[in-house]
Design a protein that fits this description.
single chain; 114 residues; mainly alpha; 5 helices; 59% helix; binds zinc ion
């Protein structure tokens, strides 16, 4: 049994790189704080009938600006880096969503893997 689990773990390690594997400690801090803020701000409960993809993007912009302003962790970089745009500073996810809805439909952006 233990050997099976070791084999499975090794197979996963050999075949798949996880987003978190590429992060340093400050970037993991950023990612964890990001996830905590989704819960603290009750984003899942506030979505209502909004389109889920655009809502997630709006929430990510709201959260990431706070993390940047409060200097919590360090934003990961790369093609799948978290979204950040200072024009959304101080805005609630609901207001950001209103500006993003059309953009997310045309770009097909799915948000960060968080
Ligand atoms: Zn997120």
């Amino acid at each position: 049994m233990a050997e099976d689990i070791d084999e499975l773990n090794q197979a996963v390690k050999d075949n798949r790189e996880f987003f978190i594997d590429r992060l340093d400690l400050k970037q993991v801090e950023y990612l964890l704080a990001h996830e905590v803020l989704h819960v603290a701000f009750e984003h899942m409960l506030r979505r209502g009938e909004r389109e889920p993809q655009a809502w997630n993007v709006a929430c990510d912009y709201a959260i990431n600006q706070i993390l940047e302003d409060e200097k919590i962790g360090r934003k990961p970089t790369g093609d799948d880096a978290p979204l950040l745009d200072s024009r959304y500073r101080g805005m609630a996810a609901e207001d950001i969503y209103g500006e993003l809805e059309e953009w997310t439909k045309t770009t097909g952006y799915t948000g960060c893997p968080c």
